[in-house]
Amino acid sequence: MKLEHLLLKDFRNYSAFEMDFDPGVNLIVGDNAQGKTNLLEAVIYLGSGKSFRTQKNGELIRFDGDFADISGQVFSQERTQTLRWVLFPGQRPRQVFLNGVKKKTAGDIAGVFQTVLFCPEDLMVLKAGASARRKLGDNALCQLRPNYEAALLEYHRILEQKNRILKDRFENPSLLQILPEYNLRLCQVGALVISYRARFYEGLGEAAEKYHKMFSGGAEDFHLEYKTVSTVEDPFAPVEVLTGQLQDHMESHSRAELESAQCLTGPHKDDFDVTLSGLSLKAFGSQGQVRTAAISLKLAQRSLMAKQSGQMPVLLLDDVLSELDPGRQDFVLNQITEGQVFISCCEPGRFTKLGKTIEICKGQIVK
Ligand code: ATP
Ligand code: MG
155-164 pLDDT, tens per residue? Predict the structure, then answer.
């Protein structure tokens, strides 16, 4: 998958932008607030109809503009195709076109042009709390497996109902009669969630290990371990076995759950741990190691997506260079040879051997 050409009209701070891109690396340089992230946002929007910064399409229209136009020519599914979005202010619905034909929804263009973004917030995910890691894993897995997304939504729906029962039973004790039913469903769907996650994290860890080795010049051994409910001996076991083990854990916490009025056991508390050459990254990793490992994970996610769709999604790395040492910067700039990559950075003087450099100033290309 490649973005060959992009045209923007009144998108964010771009009044008029037009550019051909390199099939390899596109390094976007410029001072703060010149439009580097805006450009990456446009590339992602082109393929998904979603912004990672706002839910309000109106914010994407340039302050003085009447409407925004994002048009791109992409190479995908073995041919050149065009995508176009037109966004209007107020209530007027946006429009989307694939190869000049108007489509109803973003779902109609799904899979034509896929991107994977790595942004500064992702850099510290391996040091952050478990919920940030769960979110990262769940987002990636939901993209890969729609059936997992359905199971996860169902799990959270039952979990919420169970929590409500635990809270409301003080006023309405008869609610406790329906609790066992919810517990069983929660364990059944939870077992399915664990089963998906075990396979996903295994694949993700193997791919990330390969990237991290290249990234660190062979110096560090990356290992990812999926962590779930303690009674689960083997997360790859059949779903029925997992269900029983989740029930055991739930049983042993039933008193505590009633006392605290919340559900204390299940895969909604899952996590994963990364070790580098045997040392936990969360406990002992340096800033650079944590950042590098996070980028390796993103590269791994992208390669899993490519395995599934047969096409390598475009990788967007927003502002990740500054905290890396020269060797690791060199990896990002000059050694990601798979597929197309966009890298934004503020430092002038950076260059890539694998493509071209584009300098941006106030929403314009510096010639
Ligand atoms: P940094 O290096 O700080 O990350 P950047 O080059 O990535 O900077 P962007 O986030 O791409 O910067 O652009 C930010 C600029 O775009 C801001 O100055 C903001 O005012 C401007 N901007 C955002 N939305 C709009 C809009 N709808 N219309 C006009 N300008 C906008
Ligand atoms: Mg930025």
Answer: 999 999 999 9
HEC letters along 48-113: HCCCCCCCCHHHHECCCCCCEEEEEEEEECCEEEEEEEEECCCCCCCEEEECCEEECCHHHHCCCC
Closest ligand to the CA of 119: 2
Side-chain half-sphere CA neighbours of 66 within 13 A: 0
Residues shown for the chain: 367
Question: Which tokens in the block code for residue 7?
Answer: 């045209």
Per-residue confidence at 124, pLDDT binned at 50, 70, 90?
confident
**Spatial separation of the C-alpha atoms in residues 301 and 203, rounded to whole Å:** 9
Pure H helices in 145-238: 146-168, 179-215
Q: For residue 228, name the pLDDT band (cuts at 50, 70, 90).
A: very high
Check if 214 has its Cβ closer than 6 Å to any atom of ligand 1: no
Domain layout of the chain by residue ranges: 1-114+311-367
Ion ligand 2: residues, CB < 5 A:
36-37
1-114+311-367: CATH number: 3.40.50.300
Distance between Cα 318 and ligand 2 center (Å): 7
